[in-house]
Amino acid sequence: MRVTKKVGGDLNTRLKTTRQQLGLTQEEIAKKADISTRSYQQYESGERIPKITTALLIARVLNSTVEELFAEAPEPHKH
After folding, report:
1. Exposed, middle or buried by CB within 10 Å (0-12, 13-18, 19+), for 15?
2. Distance between CA atoms of 31 and 47, rounded to whole angstroms?
3. Distance, CA of 33 to CA of 10 (rounded, Å)
4. Distance between CA 32 and CA 62 in Å, rounded?
5. Which secondary structure element, helix H or strand E, spans residue 25, and what is its range?
6. Which tens digit of pLDDT belongs to each residue from 28-59?
7. pLDDT for residue 3 is more than 50
8. pTM
9. Per-residue 3-state assignment (H helix, E strand, C coil) for 31-76
């Protein structure tokens, strides 16, 4: 059994959520971004982090920015 470590923080969650909100499949995103479906699946599952050039292409397809996709979740306020 192969165990993979999740990388990229919340990126994979943002990719999946944004894609689903747009009503697109993984295959459609990959085709529009001119990358393989498998690569996109690996980004969305957290197995890999896209290179900046690829992240820019994906962000454009998702009507987003690289900054929004890679943003860290805010820390909860401690009282």
Report:
1. buried
2. 20
3. 20
4. 10
5. none
6. 999 999 999 999 999 999 999 999 999 999 99
7. no
8. 0.80
9. HHHCCCHHHHHHHHHCCCCCCHHHHHHHHHHCCCCHHHHHCCCCCC
